[in-house]
Amino acid sequence: MPSRHRAFLILASLALLAALSIGLALTVGSLHIPLVDVAAALAGREVPDIDVVLELRLPRALAGFACGGLLALAGALMQVLLRNPLADPYVLGISGGAGVGALFAILLGLPVLGIDGLAFVGALGAMFLVFGLAHGDGSWTQTRLLLTGVIVAAGCGALVALMLAIAPEDRLRGMLYWLMGDLAQAAGWLPALLALVVALALAMPFARELNLLARGMLQAQALGVAVHKLRYAIFLLASLATAASVTTAGSIGFVGLVVPHLVRLATGNDQRLLLPASVLAGGVLLVLADTLARTLIAPQQLPVGVLTALIGVPVFLALLSRQPK
Which pTM was predicted? Predict the structure, then answer.
């Protein structure tokens, strides 16, 4: 692991960036609110536009930070689990299952709570389906798990396309925004934030074993790691983190793919530092992207998933160009 001093500096810098990004999200938008008024509102003092800060922007910023952290953590875990640098939180069909559940709820005209509930049920259903099919005769490999996830994701994509084709026009816009990722309705930030804290707390004790697993399954087994139990635990944890994020904000791409790569360049591949740093960096990225989505063509808002893709594609291409030939 990098020296304690360097690790502390990296995490402290990312924590400061997280605070600054949330502060920026509270001040800018279609209505600019001075930072002094934001600080006063957070302190509980009565100021103009206090409702905008406390009831609209703060829950949205906290939900964005939690979802970004969950996606980055899930991406880092999936890349170790599958030993594939292109693995991301959605590779195993979790997002597709959540999409089927959420769009079915929108078709039925259910309220936000019903949409979130069915999205989470769909994500869990896809997770158990992938695990059950990949487990097969009691053993599974990275390739088998990946292929099963791709097939389940394709099936979910077909169901999503079918529902979009038969959806009435008055509900089509909401369905498309959900599929592209949207924090506008993410008022329930507390469950996502709690899920992030619990997921990181559960992942950190496995950091040393994950370092060994990243070197290869046989080497990890030789060094005393219970590889099969560890892989089950990581699969379950990454899937639940993805499900919590997708339920809160819809499908937001590239955060779980790009952020672990960027953090790995700065910190190395030690999971004891990579996991918490990825959580902070993912949260910062999604909060900043959502702030841009709210302000670029204000008062109209863009789906935040569009912004993360526009940011993630050139960044990932730049990362690929830096790889040694």
Answer: 0.90
